């Protein structure tokens, strides 16, 4: 299951460097962070709408779009998925309520 995500990350890294007029990934990296943020927001709102109206197939489709754009944004910001997984692992040691309280006292 997670192999698909690892493969997607590899494809994104490969295609961002290889010019192709047919590569959406290359296009996104050329457009830059602001553009990709707008696309991410757009995909998020489309997912919210699909969830609101309980459209299962659309939820799946929009979730895939959101995940893809999320990985592009991570790469644009030089953040590795391993760093996020490490943070999620750290949070397993206490409740979500405690974790939220700790943010107020410890701005990251």
Which bin fits the share of residues in helices?
over 70%
The topology string of helices and strands comes to: HHHHHH
Mean pLDDT, rounded to whole units?
93
Major sheet description: none
- The helix tally amounts to 6
Gyration radius from CA atoms, angstroms: 16 Å
- Which shape, going by the Cα principal axes? globular
Number of beta-strand segments: 0
N-end to C-end Cα span? 31 Å
Beta percentage is under 5%
Structural class: mainly alpha
Query: Which regions have little confidence, pLDDT < 50, spanning 5+ residues?
Result: none
Quick synopsis:
With 108 residues, this protein is mainly alpha-helical.
């Amino acid at each position: 299951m997670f192999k698909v995500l690892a493969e997607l990350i590899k494809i994104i890294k490969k295609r961002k460097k290889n010019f192709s007029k047919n590569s959406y990934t290359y296009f996104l990296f050329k457009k830059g962070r602001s553009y990709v943020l707008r696309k991410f927001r757009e995909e998020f709102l489309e997912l919210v709408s699909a969830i609101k109206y309980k459209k299962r197939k659309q939820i799946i489709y929009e979730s895939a779009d959101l995940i893809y754009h999320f990985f592009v944004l991570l790469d644009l910001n030089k953040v590795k998925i391993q760093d996020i997984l490490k943070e999620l692992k750290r949070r397993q040691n206490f409740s979500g309520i405690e974790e939220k309280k700790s943010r107020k006292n410890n701005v990251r």
